[in-house]
Design a protein that fits this description.
By secondary structure, the protein is mostly helical. It contains 38 helices and no strands. α2 runs antiparallel to α3. The protein is globular, with a radius of gyration of 31 Å.
């Protein structure tokens, strides 16, 4: 029997013995018995050191079981035997990446890419991603961004690719897991902007730059990258202003001056270009790129002799090597464990390892005992002392952060919890407490990211804790204008129990589309929001007979409240009371004439009633009001499709696809439009995308349950863009 059966392998050196051991290795591998397979393969390659297949399986088994240090010598031997095997170089580089041998990892991953990865597209993507991370680490940001942009489908960039692009945009010479979590919101914003640039969506990228600079005006290289986008759009005056701003933020970097020179050349102002290039040379005299820019300016000015001297300088200088901005790296880096001092640790820190181990064990026991007996201050003190001895004690940091959080010491909890997730990034409850601490500290952007990360990892704890976390996520989604997503999250939590009142308030804010967290509601408007929350909770449970009187009373008392008619009209439509619904929605267009939502809903109702001609004016108006709304383009595309205007339908649905690339419904109807436009190849491509996305949606639905609601509901998920600051003041 295979497994742990004793095998006498000593002296087995004949061909028959080797064949028998190789067969046992293969059988153990096929049976999923990795430890036995490794043992057999080790013995086999000892007998036949030139057996490349054995080294391949041995290295792969080590790699698949996360024994990366042991995988490295196996793959090294394999590439020695078969230096043309690209996948072996790739797995060697990935193993070195996991063991933090980043210099060799980059060399070997690039070698694997050069050789090719045996027609394995997933392996190619994994390798390119890790190469890009290492290029960022080495300060080769442009090369990293180019690799990421060319190596992945631009309209469907995974989140980790976006993060790498965002770090390249911000020129952060670190790996993602080395970044301080307090920088996550900034990097997330930069990542979304970088993704728009990668997708050649320059118009949206420029708008995104404006928002990120509003939130983070003094961030190094943001003005520089914004200027580059503006220059690409031939908006040179604005680009120059942004580059001047960059000079103020990063006065010791030559990049802004080089780009200023480039912009001046594009505007046919060579004298200004020469001045900027000379300033850049003062900052980076050994840069070939800087001298090349000066040479170009001199040629444009007709100064051929000076240009020739610059050309000689360029040729004499070594190739530009990236310079790591150490200060920038420190600014973004995850902090080391905070130093704690105490009488106990002063004594133990200078003692032997045995003394330190004994002191740590004593302090850890005292910390646990004090925590269990409710002596919070004593427990905190003991944990601080123990962590001075063992700063890598994950459980200690987690318990310290929990104690700070339960004591409402949120500012102290944050660094402890950041250290915890640094030691174990998959610890969901630490991410949740970190997000809740940031919420209480009003760091709302990071709070949402970290609470969402906890949710993705699987919210741990009792039902009450999970409910509290979901409430806070929904509150932050409201703040971001993601009202439908907030509704989706809150609807299953409606009912009695802890946080019931807060959940209703958050639902009320979502129904009225007010971008606030509940604590920001003014006393004058709290009653209105509470009533909206009551109605939203009832609608979520399909209790229309109780919800409608509340909505009607609200409309009598506050007829001009933004989005109240929209919510009531949407609820009426869910009961197929379409004429009444349209009446309410048209009233909404009077109150909030600048929003596309009621027009989208009116057009959708007319489509349901097979009245595409009646739907057309509302669809056109929706797109005019919200040209960046995927849902507006989607509904207008469907209208055009029903009217038989295939080419116009394609145009609108292609716009919807660019804005909402992960919507199955958009791809389904775009396939229909391509078919009617007699574009069968494009239609088949869209059908394939629809099938994939629809399967993903079904899996997600089965995971979370079929959650539906009617308040402000949509005909399709994920299309409505966030709206913030559009409601205006509530009536007093």
């Amino acid at each position: 029997m295979l497994g742990t059966a004793a095998l006498s392998l000593s002296g087995a050196n004949s061909a028959d013995d080797f064949q028998r051991i190789a067969q046992q290795a293969a059988a153990a591998r096929d049976a999923g018995m990795s430890e036995d397979a490794i043992r057999f393969y080790q013995r086999a390659v000892e007998m036949r050191p030139d057996w490349d297949e054995g080294w391949w399986y041995l290295g792969s088994l080590y790699y698949d079981t996360d024994h990366y240090a042991q995988a490295i010598p196996a793959f090294k031997k394999l590439v020695e035997l078969n230096p043309k095997l690209g996948l072996a170089w790739d797995l060697l580089g990935l193993s070195e990446f996991e063991t933090k041998d980043y210099a060799n990892s980059l060399v070997h991953l690039e070698r694997g890419q050069e050789l090719g990865l045996e027609d394995d597209p997933e392996a190619v993507k994994v390798a390119k991603y890790h190469i890009a991370l290492l290029l960022n680490l080495n300060g080769q940001f442009a090369k990293a961004a180019e690799l990421l942009t060319s190596g992945f489908e631009r309209d469907h960039l995974p989140d980790q690719i976006k993060v790498a692009l965002g770090m390249a945009l911000l020129r952060i010479p670190l790996l993602p897991n080395q970044v301080d979590p307090s920088k996550d919101a900034l990097i997330h914003a930069a990542s979304e902007t970088a993704a728009l640039l990668a997708q050649d969506n320059l118009e949206q990228a420029i708008l995104s730059f404006q928002q990120i600079l509003k939130d983070y005006p003094d961030t190094p290289y943001l003005h520089y990258e914004y200027a580059s986008a503006l220059a690409s759009a031939s908006r040179y005056d604005e680009a120059e202003a942004q580059l001047r701003a960059e000079v103020r933020v990063t006065p010791r970097s030559e990049l802004a001056y080089v780009r200023l020179a480039s912009v001046a050349m594009q505007r046919n102002h060579p004298r200004e270009a020469l001045q900027a290039a000379e300033l850049a040379i003062g900052l980076a005299p050994q840069s070939r790129a800087v001298h090349e820019m000066k040479r170009r300016a001199l040629i444009a000015l007709g100064k051929t002799e000076e240009a020739a001297r610059e050309a000689k300088t360029v040729s004499d200088l070594p190739s530009d090597t990236p310079e790591i901005d150490v200060n920038l790296a420190r600014a973004y880096a995850r902090p080391t464990a905070p130093a704690q001092t105490s009488p106990e640790t002063k004594t133990s820190s200078s003692g032997s390892d045995a003394d330190k181990s004994s002191a740590f064990a004593k302090l850890a026991s005292q910390a646990t005992g004090a925590q269990q007996s409710g002596r919070t201050d004593d427990s905190i003190h003991f944990y601080q002392s123990a962590l001075k001895i063992r700063p890598d004690w994950e459980e200690g940091w987690a318990n310290l952060g929990t104690l700070y959080f339960s004591s409402a010491r949120y500012g102290d909890a944050i660094p402890a919890l950041k250290t915890t997730v640094g030691l174990n990034p998959r610890r969901s409850e630490a991410w949740a407490l970190l997000g809740l601490s940031e919420f209480e500290s009003k760091d709302y952007q990071n709070s949402l990211l970290h609470l969402t990360r906890a949710q993705e990892l699987g919210l741990a704890g009792n039902a009450t804790a999970v409910r509290i976390a979901k409430y806070h996520i929904a509150a932050l989604l409201n703040l971001n204008g993601e009202f439908e997503n907030a509704m989706d999250l809150l609807t299953p939590e409606v009912g009695p129990g802890p946080s019931a009142d807060k959940i209703k308030l958050a639902l009320g804010l979502a129904l009225l589309r007010i971008p606030l967290v509940p604590d920001q509601i003014s006393a004058a408007n709290s009653g209105l929001v509470q009533s909206a929350g009551e109605a939203a909770a009832l609608l979520s449970e399909s209790r229309y007979d109780q919800a409608f009187p509340i909505l009607q009373q609200m409309l009598r008392e506050n007829p001009d409240t933004p989005y109240l008619h929209y919510a009531y009209g949407s609820a009426l439509a869910s009961l197929s009371r379409y004429e009444e619904a349209v009446t309410q929605l048209r009233e909404e267009t009077r109150i909030t004439p600048g929003t596309a939502l009621p027009y989208i809903r009116i057009a959708s109702i007319n489509l349901l009633l097979h009245r595409p001609k009646d739907a057309l004016p509302s669809g056109d108006r929706a797109v005019a009001l919200a040209p960046q709304s995927a849902e507006a383009h989607y509904v207008l595309g469907r209208v055009r499709l029903e009217l038989g205007e295939a080419e116009k339908a394609v145009k609108e649905l292609e716009s919807a696809s660019r804005l909402a690339p992960n919507s199955p419904e958009v791809h389904f109807n775009l396939a229909r439009a391509y078919t009617k436009a007699k574009l069968p190849e494009q239609a088949e491509k869209e059908r394939v995308i629809f099938t994939r996305l629809n399967a993903q949606a079904e899996r997600q639905k089965s995971t979370r349950g079929d959650q539906t609601h009617v308040v402000g509901s949509r005909d399709r998920g994920g299309l409505t863009p966030p709206e913030t600051g559009v409601a205006g003041p509530l009536p007093e």
